[in-house]
Amino acid sequence: MSIPTVPATGPGDAPPAAGPGSPVLPDALWRTTWRRLWGDRGSRTALIAAALLILVALTAPLLSRLGGWSPTDFDPDAIDPYLGGLPHGALGGIGADHWLGVEPVTGRDLFARVVHGAQVSLLIAFAATAIVVVTGTSAGIAAGYFGGRVDTVLSRLMDLTMSFPSLIFMIAMMSVAQDVNRVVLMTVVIGVFGWPGIARVVRAEALSLRHREFVEAARACGSGPWRILTRQVLPNISGPVIAYTTLLIPGMISTEAALSFLGVGVRPPTPSWGQMIAEAVAYYETDPMYFVVPSVFLFVAVLAFTVLGDALRDILDPQGGRP
Questions:
Q1: pLDDT tens string 305-317
Q2: How many domains does the chain have?
Q3: Measured between alpha carbons, how far is 151 from 148 in angstroms, rounded to an integer?
Q4: CB neighbours (10 Å) of residue 298?
Q5: How many angstroms separate the CA atoms of 146 and 206, rounded?
Q6: What is the pLDDT of residues 251-294, one digit of tens each?
Q7: Alpha carbon of 182 to those of 72, 124, 252, 293: distances in Å?
Q8: What percent of the chain has pLDDT over 70?
Q9: For the domain that residue 126 is a member of, what is the CATH number?
Q10: CA-to-CA distance for 183 and 127, rounded, in angstroms?
Q11: Range of the structural domain that residue 206 is part of
Q12: Which one of 8, 92, 144, 291 has the minimum C-beta count within 10 Å?
C-alpha cells in the first residue's frame, strides 16, 4: 500500500475532504497504526514483549550487577564436583543467589549470560537488519525509478545474490575469518546476503510510482531525481518498508542463533542464545533448565517480532503478497 502524498495548501485553505482516494496525513496514519496495534490483544502483547527484550538488552550490564554476577564469573560452590559439575539444588540451581540457575561444570550465572546474550543477539539482528534495509531500499528504489540499464544491472545483481546458498556461504565465511571481531563479522555477513528480498519489494513499489501524477508534477517543476526520490517516492513506500523491516528482525535473530549454535558465530566467553543452546544439548537430560532458559528467550523474541511484523504488514501494507 502506498502512502498518498498531501497536496500543498496555502494559508487559510481548508484541509482536503475525506473520502475515497483522498490523501491521508502521515501523522494520522501513524496515530491509526498505533491505535490498531495497541487495540489488538495479540499485537499489544507482542509489542510489550519486544519492548521488554530491547530494554533487557540495553540494560544488560545493570541487570547482571543487580543479580550479583557477571557473565564470566565462575561459582564453584554452585556445582557438585562429585556429580560431574551439575548444579546444586533443584531446577538447575535456581535460588536467591542465581535467579535462573547456573551452567553445569563452570557455575556461571545463567541470568547474567542470558541478558548479555540478549544484548549480543539483538545487536546483531538490528544492525544486520539496518544494513539490509538501507542497501535493499537504495537498490530497489534506484532500479524501479530509473529503469533501463540501471534496473537490468541491479535486478541481475539481486538474482545473483539470491542464487547463493546463503547459510552455507555464511558458515564458510565465518569459519575462514578467524582473528576478527565476531559480532561485526556476523552483522556484515548476514546483511550481505539479506538485501535482495526487500530490494524486490521496493523496486515493485517504485515502478508503480514513477509515472504517478505527483511525480510527473515534481519532474515538470524542475525537481531533480534525488529530490523526487527522497521527497516523493520514498515517503510513499515507507509503509511496506517498515512492515518488511519488522518481519526481517526475527529471521535475523534466528540466523545469528543458528550460526552460533553451529559454532561459527559468537565465541565464548561472549554469550549468545544460540551458543548457550548448543552447549546445553549435552545436559538436556540431567539439567533441562540449562536448555530451557535460553530457548525460551529465543522463542519469545522470535515470536514477539513475528507477530508484531505481521500486524504492521496488515496495517501498512494490506495488499502485500496478494494479487
A1: 999 988 888 887 6
A2: 1
A3: 5
A4: 24
A5: 9
A6: 999 999 998 898 888 887 888 999 999 999 888 888 899 999 99
A7: 18, 10, 15, 24
A8: 89
A9: 1.10.3720.10
A10: 10
A11: 49-71+92-316
A12: 8
Within a domain: 254 = yes
Cell 546445553: give the residue: 280
Q: Is residue 16 part of a domain?
A: no
Q: Any idea what the Cα angle at residue 289 is, between residues 86 and 59, rounded to 5°?
A: 110
Residue 66 lies in a domain: yes
